[in-house]
């Protein structure tokens, strides 16, 4: 896999171009699908904020029957990549989740994966806007980075502004008016390698880009591991460790 030149800019554009099939992104999308598998709010409008290159939005539009599936992102490059997905059935728009262009009580399911922890994201305002636009008993699925002590160069490169403790993110969600139906972590099996990699990056022993140099056979193996972990979430409410997953209805 070719890697970009190392610099201080974030690597989101590289992520959009090359990493839809990377073991981490495939596994995290599968985890989100598992969390959503038992909910009944997929028949109304589905909104994904911070949709990135549209990989998960495409899966949402194919997997669930809904009135409409909408992907929104503030990043122009992300939306350009999303437009190039052949089978995407949702609509795309550029916008900011601090000011959602939707009417009150108009969305059945909102999804935000690695969006609410980004630099310049105001969790309180964003959650308030999501709450405003959700129908009664509408659902929000949110994933944010965990463990503030892991914050480092990797996060900076991808635009992650902060990592949350469990109490911080749960407090923010409940204060916005949501009831937490399910809380879990994700990516537990790979936690130790992730910690070692982050420490090595922070010590400048390796670069952020080095973690993308995954041979195909290893990428396949790691993908299988995370897919197994995702399937276990059907039975275990608190399996995993390095990313927070919240799934809760509008009160």
Describe the structure.
- Helix content is 37%, strand content 18%.
- It is an alpha/beta fold and 251 residues long.
- The protein has a single domain (12-249), classed as Vaccinia Virus protein VP39 (Rossmann fold, 3-Layer(aba) Sandwich).
- Strands 3-2-1-4-5-7-6 form a seven-stranded mixed β-sheet, with helices on both faces.
- Helix 2 runs parallel beside helix 9.
- The longest helix has 17 residues, at 216-232.
- 41% of the residues are buried.
- The model is unreliable at 1-9 and 238-242 (pLDDT under 50).
Architecture, according to CATH?
3-Layer(aba) Sandwich
**Structural class given helices, strands, pairing?**
alpha/beta
Mean pLDDT across all amino acids = 84
Distance between the termini: 46 Å
Number of domains: 1
CATH class reads: Alpha Beta
Query: CATH homologous superfamily, by name?
Result: Vaccinia Virus protein VP39
Low-pLDDT parts are: 1-9, 238-242
- Please write the string of helix (H) and strand (E) elements: HHEHEHEEHEHHEHHE
**Beta-sheet strand percentage?**
15-25%
